Amino acid sequence: MTEPLILTEIHGDGARRTALIRINRPKQLNALNDALMVEMGQALIGFDRDDSIGCIVITGNEKAFAAGADIAAMAKYDYMHVHQTEYITRNWETLLQVRKPVIAAVAGFALGGGCELAMMCDFIIAADNAKFGQPEIKLGIIPGAGGTQRLPRAVGKAKTMDLVLTGRMMDVQEAERSGLVSRVVPADKLLEEALAAAAAICAYSGPSLALAKACVNKAFEGGLRDGIDHERRIFHSLFATEDQKEGMDAFLNKRAPRFRQR
Ligand code: HXC
């Protein structure tokens, strides 16, 4: 029997729990092929629709989050194939449809498409052995899953140009200094820390989480005035939810809130 391309687990014991997706091609340093990305997309959509799930974590193993798109597969592609099958757009971008928070827990290599996949997540918690890079230039291509757009927004033009044009890797200290990752943790604590962050998220109101995520993405992807107008409309709309009444009442009465996801 062939190994599954991804492994999924459910963690936590609250009303809403965390779905963990492990990328599982260890012999290829978790290189991401089409079949794997289709499976991951299906898992993501399933968890997004599942009311018992509050947060999703994507991880790899201690050696690699993912060393990129699968070069052995890509080597056979020609222009018409990638154009007609909408390579990347068709299955990688399923991740962008997920409304629940998605955390990337990165240890080891996150290169090329692996770095881009991590950047499509809402934030990155990195192990102290993580290494990031966009080495596509060495293969005669360029980043193709958003790397030339998301990396400069995260770390600025100078560092992006340096990484994209030289193809070098950056270690986790540089990645944290430049704003690519939100926290660095010891490698043997990575999953524990990511699951603890996810558990904290799971305790909150699902609607306000989804809308907070949408607003931050607006800032990341668009202009300031549009983003602020969008945020204000969303902010006002949350006063129509029961969770807003509950959250504020709980605070004023010095008790824990019981969010009912509506
Ligand atoms: C397919 C890969 C792979 C990849 C590693 N492997 N990366 N296979 N696609 N992206 C395979 C190797 O061929 C090898 O297979 C096995 O994994 C172990 O890798 P080694 O090179 O032996 O390991 P090591 O010496 O530790 O070097 C690690 C490494 C190196 C520095 C990460 O593997 C490497 O440079 N990989 C390629 C990184 C890269 O260029 N990524 C970007 C891809 S392009 P065998 O069978 O020999 O054991 C991309 C496009 C993005 O991502 C745009 C669209 C998403």
Short description:
This protein is an alpha/beta fold.
Task: Write the topology of this structure.
Elements: E1 6-11, E2 17-23, H1 34-49, E3 53-59, E4 64-66, H2 71-74, H3 79-84, E5 102-106, E6 109-111, H4 113-120, E7 123-127, E8 131-133, H5 147-155, H6 157-166, E9 169-171, H7 172-177, E10 183-185, H8 190-202, H9 206-221, H10 224-237, H11 242-252
Parallel strand pairs: 2-3, 3-5, 4-6, 5-7, 6-8, 7-10
Antiparallel strand pairs: 1-2, 8-9
Helix pairs in contact: 5-6, 9-10
Describe the structure using short key phrases:
single chain; four-stranded mixed β-sheet; 262 residues; alpha/beta; binds hexanoyl-coenzyme A; six-stranded mixed β-sheet; 11 helices
Task: Characterise this structure.
The protein is of the alpha/beta class. The protein has eleven helices and ten strands. Helix 9 (about 205-220) runs antiparallel to helix 10 (about 225-235). The longest helix is centred in the first third of the chain and has 16 residues, at about 35-50. The structure holds hexanoyl-coenzyme A (HXC). Hexanoyl-coenzyme A binds near residues 113 and 116.
Q: Give the neighbour order of strands across the main sheet.
A: 1-2-3-5-7-10
Major sheet: 6 strands, mixed
Q: Report the helical percentage.
A: 40-55%
Order of helices and strands: EEHEEHHEEHEEHHEHEHHHH
* Discrete helix count: 11
What's the average pLDDT? 96
